[in-house]
Amino acid sequence: MADPVIATHLAAEVIANPYGLDALWAQGDFVAKGTLIILLLLSAASWYVIFTKLYEQEKLRRHAREAQRKFWIAAGIREGADALDPNGAFRFIAQSGLNAKERHVGLLEHIDLNTWIGQSIQRAVENVQTRLQDGLALLATVGSTAPFIGLFGTVWGIYHALTAIGIAGQASIDKVAGPVGESLIMTAIGLAVAVPAVLGYNWLVRRNKTALDEVRAFGADLHATLLGGETAHSAAASVGVASAKLAVARG
Asked: In the prediction, which pLDDT does 83 show?
C-alpha cells in the first residue's frame, strides 16, 4: 500500500509544460504570435463558412420539396409561384420565367420566345449557383495556404533554435527544445486548420452538385411549362379567330 504522505504529495504536485501553447504565447515574439493569430482566424473563418453553407444547402433542399408539393399542383404558373417562399430560389426562378414571358415585347420580340425564356431561366439558375458557391473559394484558400503558414512558423522556430545554439555555444537540449517545440506546434496547428477546410470544401461541392441538379430540373420543367402554356394559348386564339371568320363567312 502506497504511503499516504507520498500520494498526497503527488496529487498536489502540478507539472507545468514549458513547451506548450501557453509557453509559446508567453515566450514567442511578434512573428510567432502573429502566425498563430492568423491560423486561428483562418480556422474560425473556415468553420463559419462550412456551417453557413450547410444551412443554405438544407434550406434549398427544403424549398425544393416545397416546390414539388405546391408548385406543380397549382392551377397556373402565377398561382404556383405565389405559393412558394418569397425568399426562396425556386420562387426567384419561377418569377424570372414569368417576367421573361410577360416582357417579350418591343425589341425583345426579335428574339425567339423559346430562346428568350430559356436564357432568362438559365441566368436565374446561374445566380443561384453563384450564391451556393460563395465562400467555397475561402475554404480552398485556407486548405492550400494554412500548411505553408504553419511551415513558416516551423522555419521561424528552427531559426530561434539555431540562434540559441549559436549564443550558448553548445547544442544542449534546454536551448533547443523550446524553439523546436514551438516550430512543431506551428506545424500541427497549420495541418489542423487545413484538413477540415479541404474536407469541408469537397463535401460542400458534392452537396452543391446535388442541390443544383434539382434547381436545373425545376428550371427545365418550368421552361417547358411556360412554352406549353404559350403554345396552348396561341392554338386557342387561332381556333377562336378561325371560328369567328367562319361565322362571318356564313353570315
From this structure: 85
